[in-house]
Amino acid sequence: MESNGWRGGVPWSGAVTAERLGAAGERWADGRGPSQPAPKLRRAGPANSERVGPAQWDPRGGPVQRGPRDGWRDAEPEPVDFGEPQVDPRGRRLLFLLLFWFAMAASVELWYLDTPPGSVSGVGAILTAAGRITGMIAGFVLLAQMLLMSRVGWLERWIGAHELLIWHRTMGGYVVVAVLAHVVLIIMGYAVYEQVSVVQESWSMLGAYEDMISALVSTVLLVLIGVMSIRFARKLVPYEVWYALHLTAYLVLLLTYGHQFADGAQLMHQGFGRRYWAVLYFFVIACLVWGRVLRPLRINARHRLRVVKVVEEAPDTVSIYVGGRRLDRLQVRAGQYLRWRFLVRGSWYQAHPFSLSAAPNDEWLRLTVKAVGKHTEDLQYLAPGVRVMIGAPSGVFTAERRVGHRALLIAGGSGIGPIRALLEDLPPGAVIIYRAGSREEIVFQDELEYLARERGARICYVLGSREDPGPKRVFTPRGMRELVPDVYRRDVYLCGPAGLIAAATKTLKRLHLPSRQIHLDPFEF
Questions:
Q1: For an engineered disulfide with 521, which of 200, 211, 313, 495 has Cβ 3.0 to 4.6 Å away?
Q2: Cβ neighbours for 61, distance < 8 A, ≥ 6 positions apart
Q3: What's the whole-number mean pLDDT along residues 150-178?
Q4: pLDDT tens by residue, 72-94
Q5: Global confidence as pTM
Q6: Does position 20 have pLDDT exceeding 60, yes or no?
Q7: What gap in Å lies between CA 160 and CA 175, rounded to an integer?
Q8: Which of 274, 283, 234 is nearest to 114 (CA)?
Q9: Are 287 and 145 in contact (CB under 8 A)?
Q10: Distance from first CA to last CA of the chain, Å, rounded?
């Protein structure tokens, strides 16, 4: 029925009311039942007003005024080079995986080459050999884990920040299991050799072998990090505690290095194996120093960032405008995130990741923060002039990752920030599905509608709880096709809470959308 505004669509039994408003129109969809009045529809953008948003925002050009929030003025946006879709990055990921397995096989082969034929016989020898192999695997995977989180630009471009995070978490479980297996197997193997109890052998090894105490400390820290990374445990502790514990991973790396080279049968003597592992450690440490120390120091020395102003977007949400020098040379894209450190009392020691909520320009950067804890509540009251330090730009949730010429953007909650920024960089004709509990929770409405007019986009507001008929209908294959008939030909950018990401991804998979067309930026750090 064409009259209801859903091409090829079917009326939604009163659960959703929609009206075609043109290429730059908006749609409201909420969970109202048949007996409830349908929401009134509004034209997209202020047709007879100069107000286009709540923060004197001028696309690409910076704030129109530095003064208080007293109105908007339209400005001509700068031309954007949308470029060509990117080559599929899966080939790079495959190459990286091949290199990973080859390097790990070479690491373990050192044990094979150093073990005389027939020497592995008897229970004690078998247990000891298994302990040495699991120890080398654990050491190698630990190095790979640290490399994945080194924040070097080439690795994020190759793999993608979200994929790196998933791989890092997956490897974490294997590292803990391999380390514990190494400890148990080595102790049992030596105990069988010396015909003593496991307890006696454990005490004996702590006192007789060099760097064994450091090995024990690193094992305990690894297990704690692994336990605190489990999803349910992660929710029980503040972000600051979780982050501080993960910082001890650098200590684990150093202690592991000492233990491997002091006690490792294949590494304690000069030779190829020792040199090979030394090169691995040097490469990973060099990447860590560059990505986490030198590169951020260079960025902050060049740009000298300070807070320009803080603008309230909603009762618990503010946008923080940050200015600095030579921002045109900051290599950051819409959709990326940075780790922000505000140098004020109570916050200077904390660096939290926030995405840009507007495309970067040569005057300011903008992040939008919702108060969900003490740190984010404190950010609501930042004063102009506060010094800001940032980490290197991260993430590949950018327009250049697309494989086609049209996009579908799905956002929920604070996820509207990077989606709003992406809208400036994507080619015309995008569709935005904005999921919110109520109209009062909508942020950047005027800005979105302004951009929709400028770029021929279409905005669909989906309101209500997740159990309401309207939102439930949208995230079904049929509902998604009715809302976006050409979804198969679009790149889909998803950003929001885990529930929204899971529901949308499940729907897209049921529609058989290729994985390379789905780009994720979930709230996971």
A1: 495
A2: 75, 77, 78, 361, 363
A3: 86
A4: 333 334 445 555 555 556 677 88
A5: 0.74
A6: no
A7: 22
A8: 274
A9: no
A10: 44
Q: Which two tokens stand for residue 478?
A: 């049929």
Range of lowest pLDDT (4-18, 217-231, 273-287): 4-18
**Two tokens, residue 189:** 């193997």
Best CA proximity match to 129, nearest among 182, 59, 78, 175: 182
Question: DSSP 3-state assignment of 23?
Answer: coil
228 and 245 in contact (C-beta within 8 Å)?
Answer: yes
Percent of the chain with pLDDT over 90: 41
Task: Answer whether 360's CB lies under 8 Å from 327's CB.
Answer: yes
Name residues whose C-beta falls within 8 Å of residue 170's C-beta, 6 or more positions apart in sequence: none
pLDDT tens digit sequence for 122-161: 888 899 889 989 998 999 999 999 999 898 888 888 887 7
Question: Dihedrals φ, ψ of 394, to 5°?
Answer: -130, 160
CA-based nearest residue to 497, from 411, 375, 423:
411
Enumerate residues 6+ apart whose C-beta is below 8 A from 254.
Answer: none
Q: What whole-number distance in Å separates Cα of residue 487 and Cα of residue 467?
A: 24
Query: Where do we find the tokens 């290095």?
Result: 257
Helix (H) or strand (E) holding 111: helix 90-114
- Residue 190: the pLDDT is 87
- Alpha carbon distance 302, 306 (integer Å): 13
Residue 102 has pLDDT above 90, yes or no: yes
Q: Which residues contact 522 (CB under 8 A, 6 or more apart)?
A: 162, 494, 495, 496, 497, 498, 501
Q: What is the pLDDT of residue 85?
A: 54
Nearest to 132 by CA among 218, 193, 190, 176: 190
β-bridge mates for residue 431, sequence order:
408, 458
CA dihedral angle for residue 253, residue 164, residue 178, residue 498, rounded to 10 degrees:
120
